[in-house]
Write a structure and sequence with these properties.
Layout lengths: L1 H8 L9 H28 L8 H9 L2 H30 L3 H15 L7 H6 L1 H13 L5 E5 L4 E7 L5 E5 L4 E5 H4 L3 H4 L36 H18 L3 E2 L14 E3 L3 E3 L6 E2 L1
Antiparallel strand pairs: 1-4, 2-3, 5-8, 6-7
Helix pairs in contact: 2-4, 3-4, 4-7, 4-10, 5-7
Pfam families: p450
Protein name: Cytochrome P450
GO molecular function, one term: heme binding
Length: about 280
Amino acid sequence: MISSLRTRLQDFYWAYSPSRYKAACRGVKDFANVFVKQALQEKNKTGPDSDRYAFIQDLYDEMQDPVLVRDQLVNVLLAGRDTTACLLSWTFFLLVRHTSALDRLRNEIRSVMGDDQELTRNHVQKMSYLKCVLNETLRLYPSVPINVRIAQKTTWLPRGGGPDGDAPLLVRRGVGVGFLAYYLHRRKDLYGDDADEFRPERWEGPELANIGWGYIPFHGGPRLCLGKDFALMEASCAIVRIIQTFPDIRLPPGYPVVPTGQEKQALTVFLSSADGCKVLLD
Protein backbone atom coordinates (compact mmCIF):
# COMPACT_ATOMS: atom_id res chain seq x y z
CA MET A 1 0.00 0.00 0.00
CA ILE A 2 2.80 2.43 0.90
CA SER A 3 4.65 1.70 -2.35
CA SER A 4 1.43 2.25 -4.28
CA LEU A 5 0.88 5.67 -2.71
CA ARG A 6 4.49 6.70 -3.28
CA THR A 7 4.22 5.65 -6.93
CA ARG A 8 1.14 7.82 -7.39
CA LEU A 9 2.98 10.82 -5.95
CA GLN A 10 5.56 10.48 -8.77
CA ASP A 11 8.25 13.16 -8.35
CA PHE A 12 6.98 13.91 -4.84
CA TYR A 13 7.28 10.32 -3.61
CA TRP A 14 9.67 11.48 -0.90
CA ALA A 15 6.84 13.38 0.82
CA TYR A 16 5.32 10.11 2.07
CA SER A 17 7.84 8.04 4.00
CA PRO A 18 6.27 6.76 7.25
CA SER A 19 8.56 5.33 9.92
CA ARG A 20 7.48 1.73 9.32
CA TYR A 21 8.34 2.12 5.63
CA LYS A 22 11.81 3.41 6.50
CA ALA A 23 12.30 0.58 8.99
CA ALA A 24 11.29 -2.00 6.38
CA CYS A 25 13.71 -0.50 3.85
CA ARG A 26 16.54 -0.64 6.39
CA GLY A 27 15.75 -4.28 7.09
CA VAL A 28 15.89 -5.20 3.41
CA LYS A 29 19.14 -3.29 2.88
CA ASP A 30 20.77 -4.82 5.95
CA PHE A 31 19.78 -8.28 4.74
CA ALA A 32 21.31 -7.72 1.29
CA ASN A 33 24.43 -6.07 2.74
CA VAL A 34 25.36 -9.35 4.44
CA PHE A 35 25.62 -11.17 1.12
CA VAL A 36 27.50 -8.35 -0.58
CA LYS A 37 30.05 -8.34 2.24
CA GLN A 38 30.44 -12.12 2.10
CA ALA A 39 30.91 -12.10 -1.68
CA LEU A 40 33.55 -9.37 -1.57
CA GLN A 41 35.43 -11.16 1.21
CA GLU A 42 35.37 -14.35 -0.87
CA LYS A 43 36.60 -12.40 -3.89
CA ASN A 44 39.57 -11.10 -1.91
CA LYS A 45 40.43 -14.65 -0.79
CA THR A 46 40.20 -16.36 -4.17
CA GLY A 47 41.69 -13.58 -6.26
CA PRO A 48 40.65 -12.19 -9.64
CA ASP A 49 41.63 -15.33 -11.60
CA SER A 50 39.22 -17.69 -9.84
CA ASP A 51 37.08 -19.84 -12.16
CA ARG A 52 34.17 -19.70 -9.74
CA TYR A 53 31.32 -17.53 -11.04
CA ALA A 54 29.56 -15.23 -8.59
CA PHE A 55 26.90 -12.79 -9.73
CA ILE A 56 27.62 -10.36 -6.90
CA GLN A 57 31.33 -10.29 -7.68
CA ASP A 58 30.66 -9.59 -11.34
CA LEU A 59 28.36 -6.74 -10.37
CA TYR A 60 31.06 -5.26 -8.19
CA ASP A 61 33.64 -5.54 -10.97
CA GLU A 62 31.28 -3.53 -13.16
CA MET A 63 30.08 -0.94 -10.63
CA GLN A 64 32.87 -0.71 -8.04
CA ASP A 65 30.29 0.41 -5.49
CA PRO A 66 28.90 -2.00 -2.84
CA VAL A 67 25.81 0.18 -2.35
CA LEU A 68 24.89 -0.04 -6.03
CA VAL A 69 25.53 -3.78 -5.95
CA ARG A 70 23.22 -4.13 -2.97
CA ASP A 71 20.47 -2.14 -4.68
CA GLN A 72 20.72 -4.33 -7.78
CA LEU A 73 20.46 -7.47 -5.65
CA VAL A 74 17.27 -6.18 -4.04
CA ASN A 75 15.91 -5.37 -7.49
CA VAL A 76 16.63 -8.90 -8.72
CA LEU A 77 15.13 -10.42 -5.56
CA LEU A 78 11.85 -8.54 -5.95
CA ALA A 79 11.65 -9.06 -9.71
CA GLY A 80 12.26 -12.79 -9.43
CA ARG A 81 9.89 -13.54 -6.56
CA ASP A 82 6.77 -11.37 -6.43
CA THR A 83 6.16 -11.27 -10.18
CA THR A 84 6.07 -15.06 -10.54
CA ALA A 85 3.97 -15.40 -7.39
CA CYS A 86 1.42 -12.97 -8.85
CA LEU A 87 1.42 -14.84 -12.17
CA LEU A 88 0.73 -18.18 -10.47
CA SER A 89 -2.03 -16.70 -8.32
CA TRP A 90 -3.78 -15.06 -11.26
CA THR A 91 -3.45 -18.22 -13.35
CA PHE A 92 -5.32 -20.38 -10.85
CA PHE A 93 -7.68 -17.50 -10.08
CA LEU A 94 -8.74 -17.67 -13.73
CA LEU A 95 -8.61 -21.44 -14.23
CA VAL A 96 -11.00 -22.27 -11.38
CA ARG A 97 -13.45 -19.77 -12.86
CA HIS A 98 -13.07 -21.22 -16.36
CA THR A 99 -13.25 -24.96 -15.78
CA SER A 100 -13.22 -25.86 -19.48
CA ALA A 101 -9.77 -24.26 -19.77
CA LEU A 102 -8.60 -26.10 -16.66
CA ASP A 103 -9.89 -29.42 -18.02
CA ARG A 104 -8.18 -28.89 -21.35
CA LEU A 105 -4.91 -27.98 -19.66
CA ARG A 106 -5.12 -31.03 -17.41
CA ASN A 107 -5.67 -33.27 -20.45
CA GLU A 108 -2.69 -31.72 -22.24
CA ILE A 109 -0.44 -32.30 -19.24
CA ARG A 110 -1.57 -35.91 -19.00
CA SER A 111 -1.03 -36.44 -22.73
CA VAL A 112 2.46 -34.92 -22.82
CA MET A 113 3.76 -36.41 -19.58
CA GLY A 114 2.40 -39.93 -20.01
CA ASP A 115 4.13 -42.17 -17.48
CA ASP A 116 7.16 -39.89 -17.13
CA GLN A 117 7.90 -38.83 -13.57
CA GLU A 118 10.58 -36.27 -14.37
CA LEU A 119 9.39 -32.94 -15.74
CA THR A 120 11.83 -31.47 -18.26
CA ARG A 121 12.06 -28.40 -20.46
CA ASN A 122 11.22 -30.62 -23.42
CA HIS A 123 7.92 -31.58 -21.79
CA VAL A 124 7.01 -27.96 -21.12
CA GLN A 125 7.85 -26.91 -24.67
CA LYS A 126 5.33 -29.45 -25.98
CA MET A 127 2.51 -27.98 -23.87
CA SER A 128 1.17 -25.43 -26.32
CA TYR A 129 -2.06 -24.80 -24.45
CA LEU A 130 -0.15 -24.11 -21.23
CA LYS A 131 1.71 -21.38 -23.11
CA CYS A 132 -1.63 -19.95 -24.27
CA VAL A 133 -2.92 -19.93 -20.69
CA LEU A 134 0.15 -18.08 -19.44
CA ASN A 135 0.03 -15.61 -22.33
CA GLU A 136 -3.62 -14.86 -21.62
CA THR A 137 -3.06 -14.50 -17.88
CA LEU A 138 -0.19 -12.07 -18.44
CA ARG A 139 -2.29 -10.19 -20.96
CA LEU A 140 -5.11 -9.60 -18.49
CA TYR A 141 -2.95 -9.26 -15.39
CA PRO A 142 0.60 -8.18 -16.27
CA SER A 143 2.74 -8.47 -13.15
CA VAL A 144 4.06 -4.94 -13.69
CA PRO A 145 1.03 -3.10 -15.12
CA ILE A 146 2.52 0.41 -14.99
CA ASN A 147 6.04 1.56 -15.75
CA VAL A 148 8.00 4.70 -16.50
CA ARG A 149 11.09 5.39 -18.57
CA ILE A 150 13.19 8.54 -18.27
CA ALA A 151 14.34 10.20 -21.49
CA GLN A 152 18.15 10.27 -21.66
CA LYS A 153 18.03 12.92 -24.36
CA THR A 154 15.45 15.21 -25.93
CA THR A 155 13.49 13.36 -28.59
CA TRP A 156 10.14 13.10 -30.36
CA LEU A 157 7.45 10.47 -30.20
CA PRO A 158 5.68 10.01 -33.55
CA ARG A 159 2.24 10.31 -31.95
CA GLY A 160 0.63 11.45 -28.73
CA GLY A 161 0.51 15.21 -29.21
CA GLY A 162 -2.22 17.56 -30.35
CA PRO A 163 -5.96 17.48 -29.59
CA ASP A 164 -6.47 14.12 -31.30
CA GLY A 165 -3.24 12.50 -30.12
CA ASP A 166 -1.96 11.95 -33.65
CA ALA A 167 0.60 14.78 -33.73
CA PRO A 168 4.27 14.29 -32.78
CA LEU A 169 5.03 14.74 -29.09
CA LEU A 170 8.16 16.42 -27.73
CA VAL A 171 9.85 14.58 -24.86
CA ARG A 172 12.59 16.57 -23.21
CA ARG A 173 15.61 15.05 -21.54
CA GLY A 174 14.86 13.98 -17.97
CA VAL A 175 11.10 13.73 -18.52
CA GLY A 176 9.40 10.51 -17.47
CA VAL A 177 7.20 8.70 -19.99
CA GLY A 178 4.68 6.39 -18.35
CA PHE A 179 2.92 3.50 -20.05
CA LEU A 180 0.20 1.12 -18.90
CA ALA A 181 0.50 -2.48 -20.07
CA TYR A 182 -2.76 -3.22 -18.24
CA TYR A 183 -4.71 -0.85 -20.48
CA LEU A 184 -2.77 -1.74 -23.63
CA HIS A 185 -3.51 -5.45 -23.21
CA ARG A 186 -7.26 -4.80 -23.01
CA ARG A 187 -7.58 -2.66 -26.13
CA LYS A 188 -10.38 -4.01 -28.29
CA ASP A 189 -8.77 -2.73 -31.48
CA LEU A 190 -5.89 -5.14 -30.75
CA TYR A 191 -7.62 -8.09 -29.10
CA GLY A 192 -11.20 -7.93 -30.32
CA ASP A 193 -14.53 -7.24 -28.65
CA ASP A 194 -13.84 -9.91 -26.03
CA ALA A 195 -10.57 -8.29 -24.93
CA ASP A 196 -11.77 -8.18 -21.32
CA GLU A 197 -12.47 -11.92 -21.25
CA PHE A 198 -10.19 -14.84 -20.42
CA ARG A 199 -9.88 -16.86 -23.62
CA PRO A 200 -6.52 -18.66 -24.01
CA GLU A 201 -7.57 -19.94 -27.43
CA ARG A 202 -7.03 -16.48 -28.90
CA TRP A 203 -3.29 -17.27 -28.89
CA GLU A 204 -3.66 -20.38 -31.05
CA GLY A 205 -4.55 -18.65 -34.30
CA PRO A 206 -2.50 -16.35 -36.53
CA GLU A 207 -4.28 -13.19 -35.38
CA LEU A 208 -1.79 -12.41 -32.60
CA ALA A 209 1.33 -13.79 -34.27
CA ASN A 210 2.52 -10.25 -35.02
CA ILE A 211 1.08 -8.44 -31.99
CA GLY A 212 4.57 -7.03 -31.28
CA TRP A 213 4.47 -4.02 -28.98
CA GLY A 214 0.78 -4.65 -28.31
CA TYR A 215 1.83 -7.30 -25.80
CA ILE A 216 4.51 -6.31 -23.29
CA PRO A 217 4.21 -8.27 -20.02
CA PHE A 218 8.02 -8.39 -19.96
CA HIS A 219 8.39 -5.07 -21.78
CA GLY A 220 10.73 -5.16 -24.77
CA GLY A 221 13.72 -3.85 -26.66
CA PRO A 222 17.14 -3.63 -24.99
CA ARG A 223 15.42 -3.44 -21.57
CA LEU A 224 13.50 -6.69 -22.02
CA CYS A 225 13.16 -8.50 -18.69
CA LEU A 226 16.26 -10.64 -18.18
CA GLY A 227 14.25 -13.21 -16.27
CA LYS A 228 11.55 -13.76 -18.89
CA ASP A 229 12.47 -17.31 -19.92
CA PHE A 230 13.24 -18.38 -16.37
CA ALA A 231 9.98 -16.94 -15.03
CA LEU A 232 7.86 -18.66 -17.68
CA MET A 233 9.63 -21.99 -17.15
CA GLU A 234 9.36 -21.69 -13.37
CA ALA A 235 5.65 -20.86 -13.54
CA SER A 236 5.03 -23.63 -16.09
CA CYS A 237 6.68 -26.27 -13.91
CA ALA A 238 4.77 -25.14 -10.83
CA ILE A 239 1.43 -25.22 -12.67
CA VAL A 240 2.09 -28.68 -14.10
CA ARG A 241 3.06 -30.15 -10.74
CA ILE A 242 0.10 -28.58 -8.92
CA ILE A 243 -2.38 -29.89 -11.48
CA GLN A 244 -0.74 -33.33 -11.43
CA THR A 245 -0.81 -33.46 -7.64
CA PHE A 246 -4.42 -32.37 -7.15
CA PRO A 247 -7.03 -34.11 -9.36
CA ASP A 248 -9.70 -31.65 -8.25
CA ILE A 249 -9.02 -27.91 -8.15
CA ARG A 250 -12.09 -25.72 -7.70
CA LEU A 251 -13.60 -22.64 -6.12
CA PRO A 252 -14.88 -22.95 -2.55
CA PRO A 253 -18.67 -23.54 -2.46
CA GLY A 254 -20.69 -20.34 -2.53
CA TYR A 255 -17.67 -18.19 -3.32
CA PRO A 256 -18.83 -15.17 -5.37
CA VAL A 257 -17.80 -14.98 -9.01
CA VAL A 258 -17.59 -11.61 -10.75
CA PRO A 259 -16.72 -10.83 -14.38
CA THR A 260 -13.02 -10.90 -15.22
CA GLY A 261 -11.44 -7.56 -14.42
CA GLN A 262 -14.12 -6.52 -11.91
CA GLU A 263 -12.60 -8.35 -8.95
CA LYS A 264 -10.72 -6.40 -6.30
CA GLN A 265 -7.14 -5.79 -7.35
CA ALA A 266 -4.16 -4.53 -5.37
CA LEU A 267 -1.55 -2.38 -7.08
CA THR A 268 1.76 -1.77 -5.37
CA VAL A 269 4.84 -2.28 -7.49
CA PHE A 270 3.08 -5.39 -8.80
CA LEU A 271 -0.52 -6.32 -9.59
CA SER A 272 -2.13 -8.87 -7.28
CA SER A 273 -5.58 -9.97 -6.19
CA ALA A 274 -6.74 -7.95 -3.19
CA ASP A 275 -8.65 -10.98 -1.87
CA GLY A 276 -5.97 -13.53 -2.68
CA CYS A 277 -6.57 -16.68 -4.70
CA LYS A 278 -8.90 -18.99 -2.79
CA VAL A 279 -9.21 -22.53 -4.17
CA LEU A 280 -9.95 -26.01 -2.88
CA LEU A 281 -7.32 -28.66 -3.63
CA ASP A 282 -8.37 -32.32 -3.41
